[in-house]
């Protein structure tokens, strides 16, 4: 029997052993000249960047080149993601690089012309193949959901021939509703046999491990309680610890660190609301209304309460669902992280909250909810 205590290996990520082994195996295959492609999908803060970051060390050990670039939201540069990855501005450029640089400069200045983008995509794809021929390498493209059209087109071209020998192509993305170009890229690589890794939230024990690493000792019940609201998201877990620490709310007693007081919670709410901003005002406005209904709610009630039609409500919620902020449970939706529901609810001012509770009471009453639930909302509406 294995008598080792359960828990994280020092220096490794918590709860990601299987994923790390998987990536290590593929890295070795690439070092031996094979090609590999991995698509890593997971909610914001779940650990995509941390996971792909571990490849840097593995690549160095195996003598592989390592390149990592990140797509930025609203980066208008045509083929920007791949040119960042493929063109070294300080090195001498061959004819292919020069043509790509000239083309992207012309595209940035003028209107995006589909033919020119197609040519740039062709050149970028050729450069990926050439680099892989020269020396095995790892190319990490982060946050592909923000990827520009030209880069995605180049990736589709590459996918048509399958994994590039000597190349380990790793792409990360959030499960936002995919725009057409991204869906096409993912489909092309899926057909080409890319490995798909869905990075799920961590188990509750692993979340405690993340916190214990940050504080350097076991954590007490109040801190565990706060960690239980993070829905398995390590970024939220570290937000909890860092915010409590910044407010001097962490105290050690008998070797156990726990959180004291409640003042730090307002700052935590603010941090969490900041984390959710990427969802956009429309989605957040609807989620704020949902937060009044509770940790779980029925979409029909939310629609009635918000005055939106049910299909419109779904269209907006689709984004929150894809992002993992709410999760589907039968005919209900559940907030994936209590922390987020609380932060949204606490972000409403007193007047907004009263109005929304009154509307919730009306919607729930009409839908036949028990009278004590309705009267509870009415009490908060006063
Ligand atoms: N498995 C893990 N164990 C410990 N900490 C983690 C783990 N995954 C992520 N983190 C921490 O959580 C935060 C968010 O991780 P990150 O990799 O940036 O998420 P993503 O790229 O999916 O948005 C970082 O501070 C990171 O150090
Ligand atoms: Mg990231």
UniProtKB/TrEMBL annotation:
The keyword ATP-binding applies. Residues 13-164 form the Orc1-like AAA ATPase domain. The keyword ATP-binding applies. It comes from the Bacteria. Transmembrane segments: none annotated. It holds the Pfam family AAA_16. Keywords: ATP-binding, Nucleotide-binding. PANTHER family: GUANYLATE CYCLASE DOMAIN-CONTAINING PROTEIN, TESTICULAR SOLUBLE ADENYLYL CYCLASE. This is AAA family ATPase. The lineage of its organism: Bacteria, Bacillati, Actinomycetota, Actinomycetes, Micrococcales.
